Amino acid sequence: MDTLGQSSLLVAVISFALGFSILARNVRNKLFIAYSVLCILVSGWALTFFLEKIWGSGLFYRFHLFCNIWLGPAALVFIRLLLRIRDDTLSRRLLDINVITAVPLSAALALGLESYPWLLQLMYYAPIFIAVQILELMWIDRRLKQGIKVLPKLPTVGLSRRSLIYLGGLLVLAFSSMDHAPWMGIVVPSLGNLALTAYLFFISKAISQQRLLNFEALFSKFLVLLAVALTLTAVYSLLVAWIQNSPGLFFLNSFIASFLILMLLEPLRALVGYFTKRLLTQKHRWLDQVLNEAQLKLAGILDPSSLFQAILLTVEQTLRPQRAALFILRSDGTKYRRVRAVGQEPLIEPGSLPPVKELLANHQLLNHCERLKRRGELPILLDQVIESEIDRTASANQREQLNGLLKGLKALGCNLIVPLFDAGKLLGCHDLCSSTS
Predict the structure, then answer these.
(1) Greatest CA span in the chain, whole angstroms?
(2) Residue 81 predicted with pLDDT over 80
(3) pLDDT of 150 above 50
(4) Which of 44, 113, 128, 180 is most buried, by CB atoms within 10 Å?
(5) In this predicted structure, what is the pLDDT of residue 212?
(6) What whole-number distance in Å separates Cα of residue 378 and Cα of residue 9?
(7) Domain of residue 76, CATH code
(8) Does residue 123 sit in the same domain as residue 14?
(9) Residue 285, domain member (yes or no)
(10) Which domain holds residue 273?
């Protein structure tokens, strides 16, 4: 079997594992569901190609073409949820046209009409709608950078990093179509499967961690996984590959290799992660240095007033907000009182409320932070993350709760809340407002 068939099995296994792992995180998240459906289609697309390479009956290849036809609609739905596309008419029409095209192509495939060359070519290049959608999004982002606002509503944060996602998608599509261009040769098409595997991994980490635009961190995680996988492969190869027809030695060496891998897995991951972080994430190293220096300063402060000011200065240095305020729990435990603030206060328009100076101890935003802390999640509230969850959740009750949190942030005039915990107890919080998050 050639490298294209072997790499197809790799795509099938990894894409199914990625889709299942993402769906297991939250079965009510529409984005996770769309990603899982896309991964299952990719898995079926690759697996049926691999099985066709083995048996060559033609049946599996027809299933492969069926998955190829419906990759376009599944990918377009995922893109719309990922970027929260709402009022883009062209994007909606692309999805409609793609679905309308996929239905007759599927019917033609069921009737065995793929023997017609022109129909087969349409089935091959059915995912071309994905490229059209990506090119349109790249054009919109380019216009947004130029300051043109009369465009479909898209998130405006991280435009420069979003272009990396677009270019990656176009490269994956280009590489994956090489097996339908004979003049490309027979070895080059396998690059499409490898690129697709890496791309699905990046996207899975991005949507699961709400960090689509943190490319350095995602690339670092990928290098860690790749280095660990190569090291473990080398261990198995050295201890198992030399065995020929000795079942006893195979069992013994497999046990030794598995035991050694379990012992080395965590230290190896930590070691590789340390070096990749040192090499790739200069911004993170600077942030770690600033935070370590801040910890040393805070540890030597005994005066509460100086402590509050030092906390605000650290926040101002790291997050650089337009304005920030610090709320501390009163001694009676009933309210959180604003004790310090930096930045300019917003102008008070006629009829609007003045800036909030106190928060009740049972405020819904603070209660939500405590629930996140108890569940072991990052207890930070960011308006963009909440808006994304509102668009992507399939639960009406959860949307209502998230809308309440978003209204609470707007009432405070902020877009980010960072709670301060001590021994699991919420003692205060940061109220921050910035032009970018």
Answers:
(1) 87
(2) yes
(3) no
(4) 44
(5) 46
(6) 36
(7) 1.20.1070
(8) yes
(9) no
(10) 224-280
Please identify, among 163, 194, 213, the residue that sits at the C-terminal boundary of a domain.
213
Query: pLDDT tens across 343-394, in order?
Result: 666 555 555 556 677 888 888 888 888 888 888 777 888 877 787 777 777 6
Residue 10 contacts residue 199 (beta carbons within 8 Å): no
Percent of the chain with pLDDT over 70: 76
Is 116 within a domain? yes
Report the side by side order of strands in the sheet with 335-343.
358-360, 335-343, 323-329, 425-433, 416-422, 381-382
Number of neighbours of residue 394 by Cβ within 10 angstroms: 14
Return d(Cα 174, Cα 248) in angstroms, integer.
Answer: 47
- Asked if 31 and 98 sit in the same domain, the reply is yes
> 257 with 136, same domain?
no
Residue carrying structure tokens 């004790």: 339
Same domain, 50 and 30: yes
Mean of pLDDT values over 292-297: 77
The contacts of residue 136 (CB under 8 Å, 6+ apart) are 88, 90, 91, 94
Percent of the chain scored above 90 by pLDDT? Answer: 7
Calculate the average pLDDT of the chain: 77
Reported residue count of the chain is 437
pLDDT value at residue 156: 46
- Residues 47 and 134 reside in one and the same domain: yes
Whether residues 47 and 174 fall in one domain:
yes
Distance of CA 57 to the CA centre of its chain: 39
**How many other CB atoms are found less than 10 A from the CB of residue 107?**
10
Amino acid at 183: W
Looking at the fold, whether 234 and 276 belong to one and the same domain comes out as yes
Q: For residues 233 and 184, is the Cβ–Cβ distance under 8 A?
A: no
Task: Report CA dihedral (83, 87, 89, 94) to the nearest 10 degrees.
Answer: 30
Structure token digits, residue 432: 């921050």
CA distance 217 to 181: 35
- Give the pLDDT band (50/70/90) at residue 103: very high
232 vs 39 pLDDT, higher one: 39
Q: Render pLDDT for 186-209 as a digit per residue (tens, 0 to 9).
A: 545 567 788 888 888 888 877 776
How many angstroms separate the Cα of 246 from the Cα of each of 13, 254, 255, 256, 258? 29, 12, 14, 15, 18
Claim to verify: residue 74 and residue 15 sit in the same structural domain: yes
Orientation angle between helical segments 215-240 and 282-299, nearest 10 degrees = 100
**How far apart, in whole angstroms, are the C-alpha atoms of residue 208 and residue 35?**
11
